[in-house]
UniProtKB/TrEMBL annotation:
This is Serine hydrolase domain-containing protein. It comes from Amycolatopsis minnesotensis. PANTHER family: D-ALANYL-D-ALANINE CARBOXYPEPTIDASE (PTHR46825:SF7), D-ALANYL-D-ALANINE-CARBOXYPEPTIDASE/ENDOPEPTIDASE AMPH (PTHR46825). Residues 1-24 form the signal peptide. It holds the Pfam family Beta-lactamase. The lineage of its organism: Bacteria, Bacillati, Actinomycetota, Actinomycetes, Pseudonocardiales.
Amino acid sequence: MGFRRKAIAGAVAIGLLGTVPAAAGTDPFRTAVHGLVDAGFPGAVAYQRTGTGHRAFAEGVADLATGRAALPGDRFRVASNTKAFVAAIVFQLAESGRLSLQDSVRRWLPGVVGGPGYDASKITVERLLNHTSGVHDPRDPEFFAPYLDEHRRGYVYTPDEVIRRSLVDPPATGPEYSNTGYLLLGKIIERVTHHTAESEIRHRLIGPLGLTRTTFPRYDPFIHGRHLHGYDMKNEDMTVFSPSYDWTAGAVISTVDDLAKFQRALLGGKLVGADSLARMKQVVLEEGPIGYGLGLERLTAPCPGGRQVVAWGGTGAGPGYYSMAFTTDDGSRQAVLGLSKYDLRADVTKVGKVAPAPPAPAMLAALCG
């Protein structure tokens, strides 16, 4: 989730100030990923595609306690990369005429959004998707206390409770990255389809695409099967953590191969039509090199020789995990990276580093070529 979203954009921006690792006879992407492990990430899993050729590899360890080596197929929490899954379903429902992007929250969720300054009749599905709804995330510093201070990692927040706590304060006055907006989208999906958001993601995306190592839990705090353990900056194991607070904003668990397969299908026009995909790429909110569209993020960054790469995909960060998944605008290159350290307390308190190093140089090594 990452309530301090600018921590992600800022880390990417800092990373882009570095250089793309390159040396004769070396593998720039693998060298850069190995460098992230040397910088303090316990483990890293990575995927790279160039044209029709692709590979996946891992560096470091999956579990600091046992020393088990990380493997390319290890699962991890993708955090906000979940938003592209949710947005794809919303656009599918719009294409089939079951909802409109101009529908108001009041139409689908009467009585759910209210409070000082909020007008649910003016908050549309589109504005939830592109972070311009004014609905922000909970600003109560005690929101994460059950997890971080009381060590109740399985503590459950219902979407309704997160939304309620978000609406205590007046709405944002301009574009503001909002996880809560995507919780509202999850509830709209359920109201429109009369199915759970989890079942819609399974039946529309996970099953048809053959994402056999991808799951979307609502309450289960465990990652099942082989996976990376996630850590904070003090190397406290954060792997067991309720996804309930993040739900349709960030609860998906996946692998680099599965996430790459989903992204290829989405950006390749297999999940939504060309008009929908173009709309998903309409950027409204920009923070440094990251621009936020409707479930997709645009990465704009320099490459060696004065070239510039524009890529589409997403970033994700939450307790113990940090991920990036992007495909160049022409579709020729793709990279996915899952890392096993992210400090939620530093994110929430704005004190200290959220991660050992920015992963952007590694992504550029893969995307620039």
